[in-house]
Structure formats: structure tokens, C-alpha cells
Amino acid sequence: MSPATELPSHLLENLTTAVLLLEQDLKLTYMNPAAEMLLAASLTRFKGQTLSLLFQEPVEGLATLTLAASTGHPLTKREAQLQLYNGDNITVDYTVSPIAELKSTQLILEIFPRDRQLRISREEDLVNKQETVRALVRGMAHEIKNPLGGIRGAAQLLERALPDTELKDYTQVIIDEADRLRNLVDRMLGPRHLPSMQPVNIHEVLERVHTLAEAEFGDQIHLVRDYDPSLPEFLGDKEQLIQALLNIVRNAVQAISESGQTNGRIKLQTRAKRQFTLGAERHRLVCQVKVIDNGPGIPESLLENIFYPMVSGRPEGTGLGLTIAQAAIQQHQGLIECHSHPGHTEFVMLLPFDPPNKEHLTENQGAH
Questions:
Q1: Does residue 212 sit in helix, strand or coil?
Q2: The predicted structure's pLDDT at residue 187
Q3: pLDDT at residue 194 is higher than 80
Q4: What is the pLDDT of residue 361?
Q5: How far apart are CA 83 and CA 91, in angstroms?
Q6: Which of 48, 83, 254, 347 has the fewest CB atoms found within 10 Å of its own CB?
Q7: Where are the alpha helices (DSSP H) in the chain?
Q8: Residue ranges of domains in the chain, CATH in brackets
Q9: What is the value of pTM for the model shown?
């Protein structure tokens, strides 16, 4: 007897909640489309298979589900960490309810994703911090650039008044250093123009980054490409995206080189994420780009603040490369995250395939 004859199939098919029907031994007999989407799996492939092949719960395994099956008591678990068969990790709440009136299935498992709520909370916190930093940087820029203009102007006047002697070399140093500081402040403020949105193939962007990195770093690093060729084009600023990704790759190469590591490896990876939330908006399809390296990792003390200007793990670093990368991704209504531990660092860029909101771009431009 199929679940469709035991429960109203149209109700299960149209629920936004992920629902799975299980036998008492935790073999899957049915899951609705919402469950297929959440677990990135198809009923056709996993029907009749033990649930442990579909996902694992690393902390307790599936012991809680087995207990519910054996005792007949319902249970609810909050913020469970599930590792899917494809390697992805998701945070969910789930409820297990024994269904006595069904003969072919003993349990109904309802799964409620928490990643969206947790991500929204994290992003809101991150945006608030970034707005605070951006306001601070704008204030600093104003206070720094005004006296710099005066210093540069005075040096130019002094240079004209001086006789044709080597003293002009010193006034030129003042002018050059004032220009350098002004450029540094401009870089801290990020892009000062709206992105030029055109249809972009993300793999053309990555191939350009790959070519530039190979030309710049030669044999210092082994570059690997792992692309999903099915990804469609989206509207984006190709040059901004190239610059953002190249900054991340350069940082990875420098970290690996300075650690003395001789087997440095960087992977450029693309994947599609479906029904994914960025900010408070749900997107049907999102482009995920990862830059993964096997370097020494980012110190935990820096990890939370690496996208802020002037934060760098390198003594001579300005800490602006990642700030610029973040600004570029945000102009595309995207998100950039970093996860790191010794031997593995990955920067994850998430870009919606939906057309960018012009109002959002204007607001970002106004922030500068």
C-alpha cells in the first residue's frame, strides 16, 4: 500500500514542511517534494533504503529516531545538526510521530529547517556591525582627506617657490605620500561607482582569475578547477567579480607561501544552491563559488573580523583585499563567508541569479 492511498497525497505534495514516512526499522517509504529539496535527494533513489544512508546526525546518530520507533512515543528535537549524504550540513528542528493507523509505515518525520532563521540572524548581526564600521570609516576618511589636501597643496606651493635644487625631491616625497594615503582611504571606502550589470558567466570570471593567478604566481601553487557546467548566466559586473575573487586567491597564495608550505593547493569550485535565503529574501537559485585552500588557516582571533578594513594576519598587509571583495559581492546582493581551520580555509561567495535590485544598488552607492 502506498502512502498516497493512506494519506491525502495532494496535501503531502503541497506542504512546504519536509515530511518523510518511515517503517519501524527506519526504512524510507515516502518523502514529499519539500523533503527532497531540503535533503537534496530523490524518493526514487532512496525509497526502501535505511534513513542513515540519506543523512546522519553526527552527535547522537539516529538513536533518537530508533527510540521513538521502539517505544511508540513522539519526540521533538531542536537545532539538530544533520549531515546529508552529499556532504552538506544543515541545522533543523524535527518531530517524530508514530502513526498507529498506518500499517506500512510506523513513523512520520517532519523536518523544519533552521538554517534560514539562523542565517538571517547572523547576517543581520553582520550587517549591523558593517554599517557601524562603514560609518566610522566614512568619518575617518573625511577627517583624513581634508588635512591631506592641505598638506599636498602646501607642498606644491613650496615646490614652486624653491629654487631648482635637490630640495624639490623632499617636497615630491610629501606629495607622493599624501597621494598614497588618499588612495588608501579611497580603497577603504570601497567601490565608488555602481556596478555595470551585464550578463555574466561565472566560469568566465573564474577562468580569468585562474589565468591571472597562474601568470602571477607561476609554480608557487597548484590550482584546481571544479565547476558545475549547468550554471546559467546572471547579471553582474564582471570586472568587480574578477577583482573580488583575485583578492581572495592572492591572500591564499601569500598565506601558503609565507608559511613555507611546498604543497600549496587552491580549488575554485562552483555549485548551485536551490531555495536559498540571502538576507531576508528567499531565492529560487543561488550561485555558490568557493575558493578552498590547504594553507595554515586563519587564526580564530581574526576570523570574525577579517572583512573589516585594516585587519590582516600579515605584518605588511593592509587588510583591504577582503574588504574590497566583500563590498563587490554586496553590490551584487550577495554574501561572502569564511570557514577556516589549520589545513583548510574556504571562502564561500553566494550570488543570486535573480536580477539585482536597482534600489539596493543605489542605497549601497549612497553609503559611500
A1: helix
A2: 64
A3: no
A4: 47
A5: 9
A6: 48
A7: 3-6, 9-14, 33-39, 43-46, 51-54, 63-71, 115-161, 167-189, 202-217, 238-258, 300-303, 321-331, 358-366
A8: 3-113 (3.30.450.20), 115-189 (no CATH), 194-366 (3.30.565.10)
A9: 0.59
